[in-house]
Design brief:
Blueprint: E1 5-6, H1 16-22, H2 32-49, E2 55-58, H3 62-73, E3 78-82, H4 85-96, E4 101-105, H5 114-121, E5 128-132, E6 134-135, E7 140-141, H6 144-148, E8 158-162, H7 174-177, E9 181-185, E10 197-201, H8 203-211, H9 221-228, H10 239-255, H11 257-277, E11 281-282, E12 293-297, H12 309-317, E13 321-322, E14 334-338, H13 345-360
Parallel strand pairs: 1-13, 3-4, 3-5, 5-8, 8-9
Antiparallel strand pairs: 2-10, 6-7, 9-10, 11-12, 12-14
Helix pairs in contact: 1-10, 2-10
Bound molecules: pyridoxal-5'-phosphate.
Length: 362
Amino acid sequence: MAHIKLHIPGPVEVSEKTFKAFASPMIGHRGQGFKDLYAKIQPQLQTLLATRQLVYLSTSSAWGVMEGAVRNLVAKKVLCCMCGAFSDKWLDVARRCGKAAEGLQVEWGSPIRAAAIDAKLATGEFDALTLIHNETSTGVMSPLAEIAALKRKYPDVMFIVDAVSSLTAVPIDFDALGIDVLLAGTQKAFAMPPGLAVFTCSPAALAKAATLKDRGYYFDFVEFQKNAEGDMTPSTPSIGHIYALASKLEDFFAEGLTARFARHAHLAGRTRDWAARHGFTLFPEPGFESVTLSCINNGAKPGGRVVDVAKLQKLVKDQGFLIDGGYGKIKGTTFRISNMGDETDATMSALYSALDSAMQKL
Ligand SMILES: *Cc1c(COP(=O)(O)O)cnc(C)c1O
């Protein structure tokens, strides 16, 4: 069957070059070859995350590290900042880990703001918070710098940040922000196959984790640090993914991170223009639109055009492209178009043409 090109917000399209690297011959994960591979990419990962801390490789999807962060860092109570399907779910996951957890819920489409977090942390009840930087279900990017600035006021609260659909598309300076955990899965803005997560921890997070019981083993942050010091991972990693990551990092630095960030902003802007041209409004609150995907309003909020999303998807799919029909409780009343990863003006133009011709038939 012919491949339908992915413009859903994860997994996204993977290049031939990446797949080729993924299929490199296998090596032993305790041998020098593996250590050399990890040692080669470590400084590139540190540049990408703007950190002097070691960057860890977890053979899991993002949720593994999201759950692990809660197990490693929550002793008292975690504040889960909730503004969409993924961030809402983190509260449930924390409770399933047996942790005391409370939600800070804002309406879907709105960002998380520092003032609301400040009011909650001022109670002194919390020793950790979870935040999703780019809520993929709503297309909302919360103001990370504004939120991270709170860390100075609450140095003992662990700031756990999911940048699954934003890392590599916008600058995220881990050390400068002063946050405690930053994590991303590789099937979103990294444009790699699903199954690997990249993350780092502050020295304070590592010190705190060491004091917690029941961290388990597979996602024990102390184990990740100990192993990373020797260019290894705690358990046998998906070595193919790490070859693919090395290839992808080559691509990122060949393009230049600044150019990569600008490309994502530019292409998201083009999708917003496409939506406006067809009479649609956007789901996110103005000023907080994601640069990796666009969540287009289709009746979830008043105003703007409304179409049969299933029909739009089918008409676009017949032309070789997969777009998303909305996630969770806003399925059908929104739809999403991803521009993350390797997309260019040319590839996005092909998608907009297919969308234009589909719109003529609706
Ligand atoms: C996709 C996504 C996740 C979940 O990732 P998995 O790979 O399914 O574990 C978490 N957070 C955000 C923001 C996402 O976009």
